[in-house]
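Researcher: Next entry in the queue.
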Amino acid sequence: MLTYRQLRRAQRNYYLFMAFNVISISLLAGNILFLYAIRLGAGTHLIGFLSALTSVTFVFSIFGRRIAGRLGAVKTKGFFWLARYLVMAPVLLTLIPAVRESPVLALGTISLGVFGFNLFKGIALAAEKPIQGFITRDSDRAAFISMNNIILFSGHIAMGLLMAVLLGKDSPLFMYGIFIFFGIIAGVFASYYTLQIPEPWNGPKASSQSLFRNMVKAFPRPEFSRLFLLVMFSNIGIGMSLGFIVVYAKDVYTQPDNMVVYFTVSGALGALTMAGLLRFLSDRIGPRPVYFFFNALRLLFLLLVIAAPVFSSWFLTIFFLCTAFFLEQMTYWGFNAVADIYFLSTTKPEDHLDLGIIINMARGFFGMIGSLGGGFLLGWLQGYFNQSLISFRVYFLGSSLFFIANIIVLAYLPAARSIAIPAAIRAVFSARALKAMYYMNKLQRVRSEDEERSIVLAMGGTKDRITISELHKRLKSPSIFVRTETLLSLEQFGADKNTLGLLIDQVRNNPFTTAHIAARILGDLAKSGKCTDMRIRQEAEDALTEALDSQDYLLKSKAALALAYFCSDGLEEKVINSLRENMNPREIIYLVKALEIMERIEALPLIFEKISGCPHPHIIDDLILSAAGLLQTGLWFYSHFSLYLQDSKEGLNALRGEIPESGNSESLSRLIAYLHGPEYPPLLLDFIIQKTAVTGDEKRIRVLNYIRDYAERDGEKLPDKARYLCAAEMVACESPVSAQHAMVMGEDL
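Model: Structure for this entry, 749 residues:
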């Protein structure tokens, strides 16, 4: 495997290859060559033939398979890419008047040059997939392919504008010769930088099996067979319009050569837009929905050219043709790029050579069928209708059928780490999802811990589930701070099985760091009823129960509270035993709170023991509130207790205010006054027990008897705050609250 520096150097050389290659391609191929051929007298049949030669290039990959297996991927691509450009040199001879004046000789020379140009390209392309697979990783593959496309289409735009200016409205023929010459020179530099890329280790070998046999073995895999169908339908449909969009602009709308070049620039802008979208979306929503997106755009393009009239306004004509070229090139390159990403993501490296050749041959063969068939079909339609506009409408309607077929295939294409197409559509048109994807792309380029923390936190703030898979990866960060922010972000999304599994893993394997946060989240999910899978629940309970024996007091505290929300049998005794043995103040608070949630009123004597022995006032406060919760007094006790802590007299007066006039208010007031006495009077508890006896709650009476015995023995140790709780309980039994209080106690216990 390449080191990081070697990988980046190899990718940089590939980018330089792409930069010079785009100059060469812009000057030697595509619409420029079609325009030159038309100037020399080429008709629709020859344009269809030349367009077909552009596609048939991939058929020659079968020869490149053997050559790459012996010569190596890099040398195969570098040397045959060089031959590809040198073979175009004879086309310069068509500038000689004697050659140019013979249409058969001139167009034959161009055809032979284009044939050789694409023949050597086909051989070189056999090595393309192994090289791309070697110098990329799963995490940056879509970004790498997108950057190549950005270089390619930015170059097309720059070269298109330059050529449009140089051609002018009535361009001389020698200008095309200058373009061809400099295109060959740029191709030589492109080949040089190709040869600077390191040869893949264990690179492509010539397989002992035939290519056909390897194809037969691959076709049972739906990832390959359905991708093959998509490539077939797409390239037939693309072949029918790739070269003929130029003919459409010239025949139907009578556009001059320089304007067609400007439309080509618009097409390059569309392709550049595709590269940006692909870089932004493919790694986030996956190749399958992106393929669907480009297919929908292709149908939109075809709908436009089918429905468009001949505009009377020059501005509308230019705007329409720019839009048509924009969408045509955007979708053409989009299909190729997303198919490559899907192929590399679903194919083993050792299969990249043979299966890549099969995909390339399919592109070439079916593209050739689309181009050749399209040329004859369009010629027949023009003769039948005798009107260019109607002919092209019917022609493009036929092309649209192949992209409708694509939709059916896409419905059965395996996801390959893609989200569902409806979810992807919502994501593309959701500002929140687009913002989430922006952060996810930004996360791939972080260089510091603080930057990663801030991005992870922002991703959680979007609350879009598309970020979950990326957040899961951040739980393996070496930084406690990144993992902490990741857990807080994941908390926003509820509980899926993967997240729950990772939370359980954090509880078990990350004590003293982030385990306590994961334990707290598990408890919150159980509390809200979002953890319903029984197997996952059992795993979570086991991990949290194990955490009760941990040396990490934060983890132990949060685990106890989380277990209370799982409400499983047998956990109460574990928590009570842990409380009995524990002296850590924080753990005591959480263990007592857990017992309150579990409604274990029999633990109240133990809680009073902890209150009596605790030297920390604020810890006593929490324990008293939990005890009030166990006694079902917590619903109204909290506000009175808060007042008591601010001003004890006001707190006592608040309790007296709750005593009904019909009750034994004098006795109650006298008993409350004992709160500030030197000793804790058991008489208070006798009073409570008598009142509770009315409810017939024997379990609660037994507990209160235990507390009275404890008070007679060690009552002087109880702080005033605990005595205030007893007084509040006394009032609750006597006041109007007591009826509701007794009912709740009777139902719950």
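Model: Confidence is low (pLDDT under 50) at residues 736-749.
Researcher: Noted, moving on.
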